[in-house]
Amino acid sequence: MGLRGVSVAGGLVYAESIFVPAHGLRSARVRGLMVNGRAVTARPNTLVPLGRASYLVVLQEAVVPGEGSGVVGLRIVAGDASLGLEPGTQLLVGLARAAQATTRHTQARLSWLALGVTGHAPALEDAVFPELQTIPKNGTTGAKAVAIAERYLGVPYRWGGASPLTGFDCSGLTMYVYAQLGVGLTHYTGAQFYEGVRVPPDQLEPGDLVFFEPSARGPQHEGMYIGGGQFIQAPHTGDVVKISSLAEPSYQFGYVGAVRPWTP
To answer: Disulfide engineering: 9 pairs with which of 15, 71, 72, 83, CB 3.0-4.6 Å?
Structure first.
């Protein structure tokens, strides 16, 4: 799917062109992306705050309830009314591999809207959406990351999830948090294990990423160290983002190592 000259949210977000393929993110691209008059590098899973409680995600594999999964060029989530959208609305721009367009739905019935496809998803409860608050000003980058991550305690686990609106998996949580601090991470635990400086166990600091479950493809689970031998994680289906202890046997014996994805 290709789109040109895309302007949304009253011109707050503009893209010269968007291309999303039928399969995967490899050849997906967004060119000439401007947000509030400023150029933004459109890498996959880039997160851009759009005010107090709204944000933009660029080039993301998304799951649309009732419609399956697909590649989205731009996904705007309105957490308040500042974008001219009903709070809780998602605007999907360039959505491949979804349902065929239909004219039967009206905006009042939609909890998400899309250019290129229409449909609807179940209404989302307000409690599922923690606001995207201001970035903490004090402390190291790692300490700021911990403060942000703690806002999402209680958000449900969702495989492939990278949003407080729909849920997190382990790497989606760390990627989402560090994106708000300008640190880009890949949405895959095995890749994040190589996206930083290795940290010995006795030198762990808040914000370091801790990895578990060794395999031939690299570690298969991770969390964010918060200090005192504890870490925040999105564990598995049926659970929520929570604080756990490195001393628990399953984590103690399955520990692989730690990485600091930021530089002092």
So the answer is: 83
pLDDT in tens, 117-135: 323 333 333 323 333 456 7
The answer to whether the beta carbons of residues 92 and 115 sit under 8 Å apart is yes
Average pLDDT over every residue of 151-160: 88
Assess whether 23 carries a catalytic annotation: no
Among the listed residues 90, 120, 170, 192, the single catalytic one is 170
For the question of residue 170 being annotated catalytic, the response is: yes
Give the DSSP H or E segment for 18: strand 13-19
Q: Is 203 a catalytic residue?
A: no
Domains and their CATH numbers in the chain: 2-127 (no CATH), 141-260 (3.90.1720.10)
